[in-house]
């Protein structure tokens, strides 16, 4: 072409969580029975939607207004409802105008980074959730900037690492926190979040907190929202969604809550940019927005969350118990979210390791993919071709540690046990234990 039309950050748009599906689908066509443990969709893994939630949504579908456009910022009644919920927590106070709806948090993340000045960087955790790391790297045209989460300290953020990187890199305009974290399942208490708030205050940075799994939380500290901790000085954004807690991932319904926008004219102008960008799309999907107040207000909602958290806590404990006896890996029991992350001991993996792949066609297909692959991806591909279990390599989460992420979503208890026992046995075979 006469002009190069490719964005300088195009090579950073990597989402292994979905990309590995292509490999799995090909193996399926070759006769491998694939068990999908790569993505956090409870519905696809067999969770039944509660009848009372279906009933609420069905009644809203009967309303003609659910078929119409809604306000650009989001359905007005829903924004008032959510703002009230935030204010009832007793932290920073917001208005309905501080809430902006998107077509899922993927849409929100794309706009948060897409309309940020290229020279402004956001420091995020490592392991990093791919949507954030790819969006931040693509927006800047450089490798994503990260701080360390420490598996030897329950995947807690390395606060010294955060402060040093902010202090000595003035391009960093904000810090990203995911709580509960994806992919590690770590949950940060009030003290940890408060210390990160203080770093933001000291260096005049914004704080962005993804709270997608806020109510998929089975930790001792319970749910701690950014609004409860951020105070009145630091500018911040919390990202929320109904995808995981109802669950309704197909609704593509998420929103941001904006804190202390009046404190800084630059931040205020930036938030207005997000609204202006949304205005060009008219609005986000109406139906799921209308359902939120009725679902959240139902007397069945809190018991619904409690039961789901009990279920995930039991699964997290069982999976950790199964894998923790394996030599050469480290497993930290998750405290929230749908995932468990396994790390291999440093330098324990090498390119000579393999699992027996009995399906000759699958073996022939996989072997070329192993060439020049990261060591943890080699294990993941071997696991997929030999057992059909599809997990995601940790190296694809912007992480230098070897490992993988697996879900806790399997509803069939016998199959759940099979998945983790098979992973355990496969690791032992792979490492020669």
Lay out the secondary structure:
Blueprint: H1 16-29, E1 35-36, H2 51-61, H3 76-88, E2 99-102, H4 104-114, E3 121-126, H5 130-140, E4 146-150, E5 156-157, H6 159-167, E6 172-178, H7 190-203, E7 206-210, E8 236-241, E9 254-259, H8 265-279, H9 286-297, H10 301-323, E10 329-331, E11 339-344, H11 360-370, H12 375-387, E12 389-390, E13 392-393, E14 403-407, H13 413-431
Parallel strand pairs: 1-12, 3-4, 3-6, 6-7, 7-8
Antiparallel strand pairs: 2-9, 4-5, 8-9, 10-11, 11-14, 13-14
Give your account of this protein's structure.
The chain is α/β, with parallel strands linked by helices and 433 residues long. It has two domains: 10-47 and 302-431, Alpha-Beta Complex (Aspartate Aminotransferase, domain 1); 65-297, Type I PLP-dependent aspartate aminotransferase-like (Major domain) (Aspartate Aminotransferase, domain 2, 3-Layer(aba) Sandwich), CATH 3.40.640.10. It is 41% helix and 14% strand. It has helices at residues 16-29, 51-61, 76-88, 104-114, 130-140, 159-167, 190-203, 265-279, 286-297, 301-323, 360-370, 375-387, 413-431; strands at residues 35-36, 99-102, 121-126, 146-150, 156-157, 172-178, 206-210, 236-241, 254-259, 329-331, 339-344, 389-390, 392-393, 403-407. The protein has an eight-stranded mixed sheet with strand order 2-9-8-7-6-3-4-5, sandwiched between helices. The protein has a four-stranded antiparallel sheet with strand order 10-11-14-13. A two-stranded parallel ribbon has the order 1-12. Helix 4 packs parallel to helix 5. The longest helix has 23 residues, at 301-323. It starts with 15 loop residues before the first helix and ends with a helix. The model is unreliable at 10-16 (pLDDT under 50).
């Amino acid at each position: 072409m006469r002009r190069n039309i490719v964005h300088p950050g195009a090579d950073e748009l990597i989402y292994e969580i979905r990309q590995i599906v292509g490999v799995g689908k090909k193996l399926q066509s070759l006769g491998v029975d694939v068990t999908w443990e790569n993505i956090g969709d409870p519905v696809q893994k067999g969770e039944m939607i509660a009848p009372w939630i279906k009933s609420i949504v069905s009644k809203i579908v009967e309303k003609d207004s659910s078929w119409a456009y809604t306000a650009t910022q989001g359905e007005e009644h829903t924004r008032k409802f959510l703002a009230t919920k935030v204010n009832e927590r007793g932290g920073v106070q917001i208005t309905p105008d501080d809430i902006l709806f998107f077509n899922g948090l993927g849409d929100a993340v794309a706009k948060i980074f897409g309309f940020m000045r290229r020279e402004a960087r956001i420091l995020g955790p490592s392991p990093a959730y791919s949507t954030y790391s790819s969006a931040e790297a693509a927006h800047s045209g450089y490798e994503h900037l990260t701080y360390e989460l420490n598996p030897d300290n329950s995947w807690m953020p390395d606060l010294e690492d955060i402060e040093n990187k902010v202090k000595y890199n003035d391009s960093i305009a904000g810090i990203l926190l995911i709580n509960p974290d994806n992919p590690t399942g770590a949950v940060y208490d009030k003290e940890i979040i408060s210390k990160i708030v203080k770093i933001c205050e000291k260096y005049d940075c914004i704080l962005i907190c993804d709270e997608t799994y806020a109510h998929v939380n089975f930790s001792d500290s319970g749910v701690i929202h950014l609004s409860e901790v951020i105070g009145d000085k630091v500018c911040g954004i919390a990202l929320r969604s109904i995808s995981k807690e109802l669950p309704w991932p197909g609704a593509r319904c998420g929103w941001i809550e904006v804190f202390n926008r009046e404190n800084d004219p630059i931040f205020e102008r930036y938030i207005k940019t997000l609204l202006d960008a949304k205005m060009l799309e008219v609005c986000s999907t109406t139906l799921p927005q209308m359902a939120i107040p009725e679902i959240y207000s139902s007397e069945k909602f809190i018991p619904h969350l409690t039961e789901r958290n009990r279920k995930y806590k039991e699964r997290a404990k069982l999976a950790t118990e199964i894998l923790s006896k394996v030599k050469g890996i480290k497993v930290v029991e998750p405290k929230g979210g749908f995932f468990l992350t396994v790390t291999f001991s440093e330098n324990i993996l090498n390119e000579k390791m393999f699992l027996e792949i009995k399906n000759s066609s699958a073996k022939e297909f996989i072997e070329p993919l192993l060439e020049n692959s990261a060591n943890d991806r080699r294990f993941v591909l071997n696991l997929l071709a030999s057992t059909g279990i599809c997990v995601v390599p940790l190296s694809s989460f912007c992480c230098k540690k070897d490992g993988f992420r697996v879900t806790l979503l399997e509803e069939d208890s016998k199959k759940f046990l099979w998945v983790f026992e098979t992973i355990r046995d496969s690791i032992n075979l792979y490492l020669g234990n």
